[in-house]
Structures are given as structure tokens and as C-alpha cells.
Amino acid sequence: MTRPTTTGKAQDLITFTRSTTGTYLGSDGLLKSAAINEARIEYDASGNCLGLLVEEARTNLLPQSIANADWQKIDVSITENFATAPDGSSTAYKISETTTNSIHYAQQLNIQFTSGITYTESLIAKAGTNSVVQLLGTSGIFGNLAWANFDLSDGTIGSKGAEANAAIKPLGNGWYRCSLTMTATVSNSATAGFIILVPNKTYPRAPTYQGNSDNHIYAWGIQTEAGSFPSSYIPTSGSAATRAADVASLAVSEFGYNQDQGSFVVEFDHNDLNDESTQYLLSSTSSSRFIYNNASSQNWQAFDGQSALFFGNVLGNGLPVKLGLGMGSSESSSINNGVIQNTTNATPQDNAGSLLYFGLRYNGANSLNGHVKSIQYYPLRLSNAQLQALTV
User: Fold this and answer.
1) What is the pLDDT of residue 347?
2) I need a labelling partner for 157 at 20 to 30 A (CA). Which of 17, 148, 330, 371 fits?
């Protein structure tokens, strides 16, 4: 948060809480663990700062996120503690084929799924002599079309089923996070956490082939969670584990909030591809929702309790966005990446209350599920031209 009328670092005044630890990618390229109530400033694999990571609570349903003796292995062998993991430890494991003519995979048992709920499985993996891994949902819960092949040599997605929403993200040092999102059609306990070795990216679902004991990949954290996109890695060791939600706020009195007029310029990203859930970027009270997404309309907007000011389509999937909001006594405007989206005589501004929340709703729900890179506040109504220049 910056405020041109004062000196000092406003971020030092931000209150941040999270009742559990949480993981994030650090500036040195290593996956790190933040302590309870410690903010997570995350970077991408190239060392670019993404900003403050703000996520909703999520649970890794798999009892073992790293390979151990409890995993069920079907015509594969697993060598534990074999290679350097993304966190710098030696806990990455090698998964090798056996010489059997069969499907070659590992899995975990007795995971409970609920019909109609969307789940995302993710795996952190690296190419060995094999460069392809397949993720899938068990057919009894997700059908036969929820699967995808991931090429660990070039970070691309190969063949996949029609019901699969697949993504692959580089983590650096040859590691990728592969994810598969799918919706359960049956409520039951079933196998999950599938790691399937595949000869190449064009192979079909769960292929049978003659294995070679020299063929292998490296893998590390695996996760299955309820949600339409993968959240940050949640390590488990013996039982499911939950990462609590991030809560960041700043007292309005600390940055000279002007109730009569003002402007915000924000840079952020979020991970919901289809804006399926309500998300908040800046809010203070039920009427002062400065920038948020209403899932029912899938349109980002500002709202003063009576009228809305729309920002138009705001892309998800971690893509950067810059929004500008100018609030005046007689006119207000919304800017999306340098383009004026809406101008209205209505003023989307009310009593801001005592706190301004970042990436979270005023009542502690509806997380951004992304990164807040920067927030600028001006206690005056900037012109549309100024806001356009600040958001390109």
C-alpha cells in the first residue's frame, strides 16, 4: 500500500493472520514454509515478485503428501529420499517401472469424495529417464474422461480426457507442478493420488505397456483438495491437513482515507479460471466493496450498497491485472489495464469503516485466491487519464 501524502512504509502497519503454517515459492527459487501469522510474499520460477499470497482455507485430503510405505504401488518401485526436492531437502523420491506388461502407478487408499463437488489433484514432479506423468480421477467417482498427460521435459500437456481441466506450472530447477481438476459424480470412498508412468504424452488413460526398470521420474508433494484450482502445497504426514485462510488488513486511520473522494490503483492476479466463486480484492464494510467479483455475474465491480461500477472481464489463471478506481463527489470511473470500462454519476464510496481488507471480504470470507502485488491510494479523485496511465 502506498500513500503519496505521507512517508514511511504502510506495509509495516498491515495486520496479517493465518492460524496455520503455509507454503510459498521464495525469491531464491525454493519452496518455503511460512510460520503461523507470517505473510507469504511469493515469487515465480524466474524470480519475479508476484506479491502477497492470499488464499482461502484448503485441506489436502491425502494422508501422505510424500511417498512412504503406506502408498500402494502397482508395478512400480519407489526409492525414498533419493533427490533434492523443491524445498532444498533430500526428500524427493524416484518412481521406476517394473518390467511387467501392465499399468505402472502408485496410489493412496480410502479418500472420501462427495458427488457434485469439484476436486483438484496436483503433483510436483521432474523428468528422469521418463519425461511424462499421468494424473487421473478414479473412474468410479469421476468417470473415464478425467485424466491428462504432463510432459516434464518441456512443461506442456499432452493427451487428456474431455472432462479434464489440466494445468502445468514451472517451479524451477526442472520441477513442475501438474494439476488436474474434475467433478465427482458419486459420493464414496475411493483411491486417489494417482501417479501413473506413461511412455509418451500421446498415450491414452491408464495404458498397459512393457515396463523397463531403468525408466523413472522424480516426484515430491502430491495433493488432492476440494476446489476448482490448485492452492499452495499443503504437506501431510499420516492424515489430512488444512491450511487456514490468510487475513490481511490495514486500519483506515493509518493512511488518511478521504470519504469524500479518492482513488485506488491495484495490481494483482487470481487463480479462478471462470470466476466461479465470489472474490474480494479491496473491501471495508458491506457497502464499501471497493473491488470485488460477484460470482453470479462473473464481473468485477465496485459497490456502495446501492449501485455498481463495473470493471468488465478480469482474467484468472494467475495472469496479472491492473485496475483503477476513481471516486468523486459527482462522478466515478473504473479502469481495467488502461481502458475505461465504466463511468457513472453514482459514487461507489461510503463510510469505509475502521479497516481495509486486502484480498478478503470484510466479514472474513471470499478470498482473492491470488497475489496482491501493489496497492496505491490517493485521497483525491485522479482524472481518468491519470488512472489509465497508472494501469497500463
Assistant:
1) 60
2) 371
Domains and CATH numbers, the chain: 10-55+245-390 (2.60.120.200), 59-243 (2.60.120)
The answer to whether the CB of 316 falls within 8 A of the CB of 228 is no
Element (H, E) at 144: none
Element (H, E) at 35: none
pLDDT in tens, 365-389: 899 999 999 999 999 999 999 999 9
Over residues 83-130, the pLDDT tens digits come to 999 999 999 999 999 999 999 999 999 999 999 999 999 999 999 999
- Distance (Å, whole) CA 231 – CA 87: 17
Pairing relationship of beta strands 105-113 and 72-74 according to DSSP bridges: antiparallel
- What DSSP assignment string belongs to 317-365? TT--EEEEEEE-SS-EEEEETTEEEEEESS-------SEEEESS-TTS-
Contact of 357 with 372, CB cutoff 8 Å? no
Q: Which residues pair with 342 in a beta bridge?
A: 334
Q: Are 8 and 380 in contact (CB under 8 A)?
A: no
Q: Which residues of the chain register pLDDT less than 50?
A: 1-8
